[in-house]
Amino acid sequence: MNTYIERVLQETKDKNPNEKEFLQAVEEVFTSLEKVIEAHPEYEEHAILERLIEPDRVIEFRVVWEDDQGKAHVNRGYRIQHNSAVGPYKGGLRFHPTVNLSILKFLAFEQTFKNSLTTLPIGGAKGGSDFDPHGKSDKEIMRFCQSFMSELYRHIGKDIDVPAGDIGVGGREIGYLFGQYKRIRNGFENGVLTGKDLLYGGSLLRPEATGYGALYYIEEVFQHHNESIKGKTFALSGYGNVAWGAIKKIVELGGKPVTISGHNGYVYDPEGITSEEKINYLLEMRSSKDANIKMYADKFNCEFHENEKPWSIKADVCIPCATQNEVDLEDAKKIVENGTKYYFEAANMPTTKEALDYLLKNKVIVGPGKAVNAGGVAVSALEMSQNSMRYAWTKEEVDEKLHQIMKSIVESSIEASNKYGYDFDLIKGANIAGFEKVATIMMKLGLY
Ligand code: 2IT
Question: Of all protein residues, whose CA lies closest to atom 10 belonging to ligand 1?
């Protein structure tokens, strides 16, 4: 390993001893950069890597809200503004009990490289809260969002930092957050958030964008392998926005999705989650107050495997769509044993390091999250463009742009991988391409 990279990885550990996920993400990106760093000694001189492990700004705040019984609760709110070399900070807000500084720092770090890959002018950020939306009433969600925004508003703006949704934050939450922002600012600055409803400035296709984008990415990779989506079976985890969009596009392209999963197990539907009724039921399930994946198995009369993950099901392609580190070594062994050749991360860092090493050692083609799922934030950036033009593109126009962006992400990853002598390495390629743009701009902007 290159001594500069080694030194900064050690520094990352020393400075962040308790931030496991952040360390994991930094290690994955930096170990891809060995040859880039050798070719660019000026990066060490300008401390580019040291600057990338220190977010521009970490904001932490108290969020007080009242439940329906009138009792007060306190949660912790965060916004990590990681890097704004490429454009205003951009990234989602996550409301989930597992949210902590390490998770958000890793997500913000990943977001910087992902956003750089999209070809659009957006920097990287992430935020959220350890608030658990599960089982909360609509009014409780509203009061939480209003309180959260009462602090966040001072740190964001359409040219400063533009949050969006992530786990636990969808169209409803974005609505309440925007309502509060609008009230505080006394102005209709809707470019400050993305993932908005169409009626007040959202973009067509934003809900589908992450899933559709993932499939456009897979299609492009398949072209290089003379493969097609038609007739292939897909195992997916999750049942939220990302899995829903991916399933819709898989079906449209003639593939067969057979699994979805939730926190308490997975559903195996050997007939395929292919009908409009089944796909729409995913939305219905998600919006129900006590959402539970078993509802799908009961309704469509198929297998529910309690407290298990879907990776023992034989499929041509696996797409984890749920959350970080959901696929461990044991899962990776099952995937290899099943003869699965393709594995595309639609969630952010869903694979543990051991599992990833095992998949790669066994010649599974892996598409990394920051590239595969970049369609979501890409359409968010298109939403920002439409807001600033005060004009909306048609669904076809957004779809065409998304398609082009995903193709260019695959092509620039392959190009970067080849440039530094790697053989079709989509992980190293994405990390290198994402990094090179950020580093080049940072060099031009001088020390800060
Ligand atoms: O992980 C992600 O890229 C997102 N949650 C979407 C971020 C965005 O700004 O649309």
Answer: 377
